[in-house]
TrEMBL record:
One of its GO terms (molecular function) is cobalamin 5'-phosphate synthase activity. The gene is cobS. This is Adenosylcobinamide-GDP ribazoletransferase. It comes from Amycolatopsis lurida NRRL 2430. Its EC number is 2.7.8.26. The chain crosses the membrane at residues 34-53, 59-76, 168-192, 198-217, 229-247.
Length: 248
C-alpha cells in the first residue's frame, strides 16, 4: 500500500516519471496525501539549488525567488496554480453552489482567478526574496515546497466532505485520520524548527496551515466540500503563508 501511495503522490504532484500504482482506492489515495511532502522533496531540492546558484551568481533576490518558484510550478505541471485560479473563480462567481462548481469545472480562468493567481505569486516571490535577503532563502524555499504539500493531509481528514460525487476530491476526501494529519504537521514543524530559527520555523508551518485551513473552511461552507481544485488552492495559499513567515 505504501509503495502505491508514494507512486500516486509522485505521479500526481510532480513531473517525475514513476510506474503507475498497482491499485488506487481510498486507502491508497489517503496515503498519497500523507506522503505528499516526501513526494515533492525533489522539487524542494531544485528550488533550493536555484536559490543557492542565484546567490552565488549575485542575482537580485527577487529574480532568484522567481526562478525557484517558476521551476516548482513547471515541476508540478502548474497543477496547484490552476486549482487556485479555478477555486477563486468558483468562489467569486455565484453564491449558488451548483453554479460555482460548474464554473470551476470549466477550467478557463476569469478575472477573479487571474487576479488571485497574480497576487498570490507576487506574495510568494516577494516573501521568498525577503527570506533570501535575510540569509535563509535556501531553507525557506525547501520548507515552503514541502510544508505547502503537507496541508493536503489536513484537507483530506475524516469529516471533510467531497463537493462532488466524482473526481479527485471524492477519492481523497475524508481519507486521512485526524491523528495522522496531526502527526504530519508535527513532523513538518519539527523539521522546520531544525533548519531555521526554531521559532520562525514553527511559525512558518503554523501560518501555512492556518492559511490553508481558512480557505478549506470557506470552500466547505460555500461548495459543500473539497475538489481537486480546492486542494491545489490550499497548497498555494499555504506556500504563501510559509514564505511570509520566513520573509524577514
Amino acid at each position: 500500500m505504501i509503495a502505491d501511495a508514494l507512486k500516486m503522490a509522485v505521479g500526481t504532484l510532480t513531473t517525475v516519471r514513476v510506474p503507475p500504482p498497482g491499485v488506487i482506492d481510498r486507502r491508497v489515495a489517503g496515503g498519497a496525501m500523507v506522503l505528499a511532502p516526501l513526494a515533492v522533496v525533489p522539487l524542494a531540492a531544485v528550488a533550493s539549488l536555484i536559490v543557492f546558484l542565484g546567490e552565488s551568481a549575485g542575482l537580485p533576490a527577487f529574480a532568484s525567488a522567481a526562478l525557484a518558484l517558476g521551476a516548482v510550478a513547471l515541476g508540478s505541471r502548474g497543477l496547484h496554480l490552476d486549482g487556485l485560479a479555478d477555486t477563486a473563480d468558483g468562489l467569486g462567481a455565484s453564491y449558488d453552489r451548483a453554479r460555482a462548481l460548474e464554473v470551476m469545472r470549466r477550467g478557463d480562468s476569469g478575472p477573479t482567478g487571474i487576479a488571485t493567481l497574480v497576487l498570490t505569486l507576487l506574495v510568494q516571490t516577494g516573501a521568498l526574496a525577503g527570506a533570501i535577503s535575510a540569509g535563509h532563502g535556501i531553507a525557506a524555499a525547501a520548507a515552503a515546497v514541502i510544508a505547502g504539500r503537507g496541508v493536503l493531509s489536513l484537507c483530506c481528514t475524516r469529516g471533510v466532505p467531497s463537493a462532488r460525487p466524482e473526481g479527485l476530491g471524492a477519492t481523497v476526501a475524508g481519507s486521512v485520520p485526524v491523528w495522522t494529519a496531526a502527526a504530519v504537521f508535527a513532523v513538518l514543524a519539527g523539521a522546520a524548527a531544525l533548519v531555521l530559527p526554531w521559532w520562525q520555523g514553527l511559525a512558518a508551518v503554523a501560518l501555512g496551515y492556518l492559511a490553508a485551513a481558512a480557505l478549506l473552511a470557506r470552500c466547505v461552507q460555500r461548495l459543500g466540500g473539497v475538489t481537486g481544485d480546492v486542494l491545489g488552492g490550499c497548497v498555494e495559499v499555504a506556500v504563501a503563508g510559509v514564505l511570509l513567515a520566513l520573509s524577514f
